[in-house]
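Design job #97: recover the sequence.
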């Protein structure tokens, strides 16, 4: 789901997925660098305190980065997001967009909703597909581990 494009030419990309694990488990896969590596990429820098920086190198080479804005254990993570400039990557500066991840318990499962704000509209489809793929990998990785 993508919201309408704003006057500034940006939009919000939204994805929701049900994961067969409790929020505590899903949280760990977002905040533990070793678990993060299993589904998203290798943390080059990773300080999960508010204001802490992160850089994550994805398996096929691109590096994303930003800073953690808000962390409510087992419920909510907010971080800025962008790409380290490289050939073929969207021109979204490190930290120039904002991602909110909410985790809601539903029985033994977690409903994860991700909202990526301020995405340049020209890159919305690409980022929506990327988030859908990575959230699917997250769910599969957790299912294999539990």
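Job complete. Output follows.
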């Amino acid at each position: 789901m993508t919201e309408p494009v704003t006057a500034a030419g940006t939009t919000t990309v939204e994805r929701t997925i049900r994961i067969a694990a409790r929020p505590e488990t899903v949280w760990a896969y977002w905040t533990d660098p070793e678990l993060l590596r299993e589904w998203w990429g290798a943390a080059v820098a990773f300080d999960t305190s508010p204001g802490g920086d992160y850089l994550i190198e994805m398996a096929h080479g691109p590096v994303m980065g930003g800073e953690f804005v808000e962390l409510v254990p087992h419920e909510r993570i907010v971080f800025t997001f962008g790409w380290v400039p490289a050939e073929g990557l969207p021109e979204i500066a490190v930290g120039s967009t904002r991602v909110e991840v909410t985790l809601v318990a539903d029985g033994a499962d977690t409903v994860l909703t991700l909202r990526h704000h301020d995405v340049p509209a020209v890159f919305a489809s690409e980022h929506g597909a990327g988030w859908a793929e990575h959230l699917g990998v997250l769910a599969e990785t957790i299912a294999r581990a539990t």
